[in-house]
Design a protein that fits this description.
With 333 residues, this protein is of the alpha/beta class. The strands form four sheets. The protein has a five-stranded mixed sheet, with helices on both faces. Strands 8-13-12-11 form a four-stranded mixed sheet, sandwiched between helices. A two-stranded antiparallel sheet has the order 2-3. The mean pLDDT is 97.
């Protein structure tokens, strides 16, 4: 087979979707011992979007995908590869990517699969799709991060439920003949030695669903917030610098930093350590809370549609999540 390998892989389209329902901090204070001031001071969050009854991860992925495809100027029939990143799929199997494929009406002879790397999922997904596309086998890939976090948080636990929201973000990656553009470089990593720091214990083969696991609330997010904060600041800074060094680009050349939206204090600490001024850091956690792997593509889509990204700009993604996982990607638009 004579394959024409592309000179680069570019982000040709972005899209995002959040559910209509908005749950403010004041709304939460009606049934939790909390307040808008307490939540905002510690996280930077004012509200989050919550999926409607019956609205699944694949439904949100579908809406974000439609917008990304439209912005890329291609149809669903032009997609050669579908990667969905999520920690709350519609079901254990089949994959949410296959469910999305059916909803989009995409042809049935392309690879579709899910990828689980928690909040780092989007960066992982872009890297995996990019490497597959560099083979020359795929011209357009749809990478979608969709998360229904409201389905796995304990709404009686104020230490976790106030932090998360639902939503989806998508990008179309396209093969390009243009050199020195698109996905310039990525660094990924993981450390599985301390999984208890951030996890959902039950529902898998280790602890299958039972009356006991439900009664003990083991199907909800468990998090040691203090430890996660400490690790996130250190690792996100290190990996951002590592990918910049790998690509031969200095931090002052970065036009926009789009970090995982977990906590404003984490975001500002990372930016400060990178010497990137606040006007070059995209922050939207106030309106969406932590949407796990969807946070970076939602922010990217917002920034792109607001005209904050122009041709030739270097945009830096950096994320940290359960696993522990992490990743950073430098893109030249």
């Amino acid at each position: 087979m004579d394959l024409k390998k592309p000179n680069s892989i570019v982000i040709s389209g972005t899209g995002s979707y959040v559910p209509e329902k908005s749950l403010t901090n004041d709304d939460l204070a009606k049934f939790l011992d909390t307040s808008d001031e307490w939540i905002f001071e510690r996280s930077g969050i004012r509200r989050r979007h919550i999926a409607a009854d019956g609205e699944a991860t694949s439904d949100m992925a579908l809406e974000a995908s439609k917008k990304a495809l439209e912005r890329a100027g291609i149809g669903a029939s032009d997609v050669d590869l579908v990667v969905v990143t999520t920690v709350n799929p519609d079901m254990m199997f089949p994959s949410t990517a296959c469910l999305l494929q059916a909803k989009l009406g995409i042809r049935n002879n392309i690879p579709c699969f899910d990828l689980s790397a928690a909040c780092s999922g989007f960066v992982y997904g872009v890297e995996v799709a990019t490497r597959m596309m560099q083979s020359g086998l795929y011209k357009n890939a749809l990478v979608v991060s969709s998360e229904k976090m409201s389905s796995i948080v304990d709404w009686e636990d104020r230490s976790t439920c106030v932090l998360f929201g639902d939503g989806a973000g998508a990008v179309v990656l396209s093969a390009s003949d243009e050199a020195d553009t698109g996905i310039i470089g990525t660094v990924l990593g993981a450390d599985g030695s301390d999984t208890a720091m951030l996890r959902m214990p039950a529902g898998g083969s280790l602890m299958p669903t039972s009356a006991e696991t439900v009664a003990k609330k083991l199907h909800f997010v468990q998090m040691d917030g203090r430890e996660v904060f400490k690790h996130a600041v250190k690792i996100m800074q290190e990996k951002a610098l590592e990918v910049l060094d790998h690509c031969g680009v200095s931090a002052d050349k970065v036009s926009l930093l789009i970090p995982h939206q977990a906590n404003t204090r984490i975001i500002h600490s990372v930016a400060k350590r990178l010497n990137i001024p606040s006007e070059k850091v995209y922050v939207n956690i106030e309106n969406y809370a932590n949407t796990s792997s969807a946070s970076i593509p939602i922010a990217l889509d917002e920034a792109a549609r607001a005209g904050k990204i122009k041709k030739g700009d270097y945009v830096l993604f950096v994320a940290f999540g359960a696993g522990l996982t992490w990743g950073a990607t430098l893109v030249k638009f």
